[in-house]
Amino acid sequence: AKRAGGGAYAFYNEEMSARMEHKSEIESLLLAAPFDNQFELAFQPITNINSGNVTCVEALLRWKDETVSSATPQEIVKVAEETGIILGLGEWVLNKACAFAADLGDGVCVAVNLSPVQFERSNIVETVQDALHQSGLPSNRLHLEITETLLLDDNDEVRADLQVLRRMGMKISLDDFGTGYSSLSYLKKFTVDQIKIDKVFVEEIGVNQDHNAIVASIITMASSLGMTTVAEGVETAEQLQILRGAGCDEVQGYLLSKPLPGAELIDYLRSLEDG
Ligand code: C2E
Ligand code: CA
Ligand code: CA
Ligand code: CA
After folding, report:
1. Nearest to 81, CA basis, from 149, 9, 18
2. Where is the signal peptide (predicted)?
3. Which residue, 114, 213, 257, 266, is the most exposed by fewest CB within 10 angstroms?
4. Of the candidates 63, 77, 143, 72, which has an alpha carbon nearest to the alpha carbon of residue 116?
């Protein structure tokens, strides 16, 4: 920082050191105990918009004991990526998620978030294969969620890894669609199966007519390219209705369910069967 204003400089410094402290606090927590003692997974239903059936659940990282740290999943993942801990943590998440889905046993699939670092710095194909093997989960019941940053470099190795994973039977979903740079036609060459429309667009449905049109055209274009769509962060019945009208395939959000601990997710699935 330049000395444009002493106050701004001091503020910048304080903020930076607060961030560093926060970062090293998260890092030492990550290193302190086995992941099993620190973390658990929450599972959020992804629901077919027409049938109302839960087709999949997304696995999301949670502190086991929320009093230990206030760091959000996003912050944990960021520090884990910066330190390389994401390689072990990501493997842990995959194993846990596949084991849970294998126990569910009734056709519901599990979606797991993969960090670009796992593609860059580990053999992701092998890690995924091991998780399937150890859990006995059929590959078509695992969805892998990737982000646009992974595709930005247009990296041959990444493309090859994604091809292998698809051939093994997994679906690839592109997370947070619309927040990055890629166009749908660009995605076509990575042969992504599914697009998750980011909640920043869903939030504005019914509020801002332009967003209704954007979402509708994303859905139309995705479907013409052979990809299905999931809308994230669906919170109102109005959003659901407009998304259904626009031809969206699946929805995820607080309207249907928050991310739930495994046992509660099982209760939720049962309550749908009984109701
Ligand atoms: P994401 O993959 O986009 O996950 C969806 C996030 O939206 C979750 O936040 C979920 O709790 C939240 N959400 C779901 N429905 C609603 C809704 O109706 N309204 C609102 N306002 N929010 C909703 P969460 O669990 O805090 O996770 C944040 C991010 O952290 C994830 O975003 C993902 O990028 C990352 N993350 C979480 N778990 C993992 C993991 O195991 N591996 C990796 N690499 N990243 C993870
Ligand atoms: Ca996700
Ligand atoms: Ca690789
Ligand atoms: Ca997302």
Report:
1. 149
2. none
3. 213
4. 77
**Residues surrounding ion ligand 4 at CB below 5 Å:** 175-176, 232
Give the binding-site residues of ligand 1, using a 6 Å CB cut-off: 44, 60-61, 72-74, 77, 93, 113, 115, 175-176, 199, 233-235, 252-254, 259
Max Cα separation, the chain?
66
**b or e along 169-201 (b: 16 or more beta carbons within 10 Å of the residue's beta carbon)?**
ebbbbbbbbbeeebebeebeebebebbbbbbeb
Closest residue CA from atom 43 of ligand 1:
113
From residue 202, how far is each of 1, 90, 176, 208, 216 by CA, in Å?
Answer: 38, 28, 11, 10, 11
**Centroid of ligand 4 to alpha carbon of 160 (angstroms):** 24
| Dihedral sign from CA coordinates of 265, 271, 274, 275 | negative
Encode pLDDT of 109-119 as tens digits.
Answer: 999 999 999 99
Choose the residue to mutate in 72, 77, 94, 127 for probing ligand 1, maximizing ligand atoms within 8 Å of C-beta: 77
Closest ligand to 162 CA?
A: 3
Strand residue runs (E) in the chain? 39-48, 54-63, 109-113, 142-146, 171-177, 194-197, 228-231, 250-251, 260-261
Residue 141 near residue 108, CB atoms below 8 Å = yes
Q: Which ligand 1 atom minimizes the distance to the CA of 72?
A: 26
Q: Which ipTM was obtained for this model?
A: 0.98
**Could you tell which of 86, 96, 100, 113 is best to mutate to test the pocket of ligand 1, judged by most ligand atoms within 8 Å of the CB?**
113
